[in-house]
């Protein structure tokens, strides 16, 4: 079981009103969530033929992993594909599930 949590302190971006800035901030957060999942998977080392459950608190990140990529961000698409390639090479099966942020207390404690 793998729980991820990404915290981004970005008060300057929150003050911006431009839609493009908010979209870029959102994509960056999703990319960070995907990287957290990837680093978590790498922590399992050389294990093969295992099934790992990844619990995330971002529905878009869950969708990128479940769909093995996406079309809105090249960076996020690449990250999701890299995760799946890593898993395929090691015979790792992943399942993702959404945990609402308010219920993701386990990851908050770590």
- Structural domain count: 1
The strand order across the widest sheet is: 1-2-3
What is the residue-averaged pLDDT? 76
Rg for CA atoms: 14 Å
CATH class: Alpha Beta
Classify the helix fraction into a percent range.
40-55%
- Work out the helix count: 5
Concise summary:
With 110 residues, this protein is α/β, with parallel strands linked by helices. The protein contains five helices and three strands. α2 packs parallel to α4.
Which terms would index this structure?
3 strands; alpha/beta; 53% helix; Nucleotidyltransferase, domain 5; 3-stranded parallel sheet; single chain; 110 residues
Could you outline the blueprint of secondary structure elements for this entry?
Layout: E1 2-3, H1 11-15, H2 19-42, E2 50-56, H3 59-66, H4 74-89, E3 92-98, H5 105-109
Parallel strand pairs: 1-2, 2-3
């Amino acid at each position: 079981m793998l729980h991820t949590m990404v915290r981004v302190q970005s008060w300057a971006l929150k003050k911006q009103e431009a839609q493009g800035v908010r979209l870029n901030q959102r994509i960056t957060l999703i990319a960070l969530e995907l990287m957290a999942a990837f680093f978590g998977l790498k922590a399992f080392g050389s294990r093969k033929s295992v099934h790992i459950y990844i619990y995330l608190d971002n529905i878009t990140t869950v969708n990128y992993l479940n769909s093995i990529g996406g079309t809105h961000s090249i960076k996020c698409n690449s990250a999701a594909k890299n995760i799946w390639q890593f898993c395929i090479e090691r015979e790792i099966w992943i399942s993702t599930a959404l945990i609402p942020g308010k219920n993701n207390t386990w990851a908050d404690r770590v």
